[in-house]
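Hey, I'm writing a tutorial for new members on how sequence and structure tokens pair up, and I'd like a real worked example in the thread rather than a made-up one. If someone can provide the structure for the chain below, I'll link this post from the tutorial.
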Amino acid sequence: MRSLTEEETKTLFTKIANYTGSSLSQLVAPTATDGASGEVDRMVFRIQKDRVFYMPLKLANLAVSIPRASLLSVGTMIGKFTKTGKFRLALTSLDIIAPHARYRLWIKPNGESAYHTNQIVNVFVLINDCFTVPFLYGSNVVRAHIARWSEDAPEHSGCIVYSMDDTPLGFGVTARSTAEIRKLDPTAIALFRQADVGEYLREEDTLFTT
């Protein structure tokens, strides 16, 4: 495990800033207090092979004593560099970037359109009105499934996707600005999915190994 090079750091921060904006400074320079000693520690990024991890500096210093070939993971995996030098955020970065999100999108709640007294019909309505399900199966978000959206979201910007109870579901890139998407039909793509929490089940065997 090693520190990132200047070029790697620039690529990483550019990618994260697309989702956090100026709040990136809070992510790269926060402090964490060691409960035992009361010492203040800063958070750092470290790279192991092509994967980037986010952790307290104290933990990073301890991990140096572990041979690279034996070290599988430490801290939180943010993402990985491709062979072409591009950086891809991983689903595991969601809890890190979501609190600092610049733009947010909320998907409509399940079963909001109608309720019926017949239990069979009621189940049918709920299944067909699960707007979060397509996203959690890896689909893009269309206009008809949006409940709320940040008013000033521009095109091609990073956006965190939430349920209506403010639970982060994933993230993606806006296909249109907020103003433009309102003029399109309900089936128009509003956000291109990059990652969703459904991956924890769909890609359980490969999420941390590929």
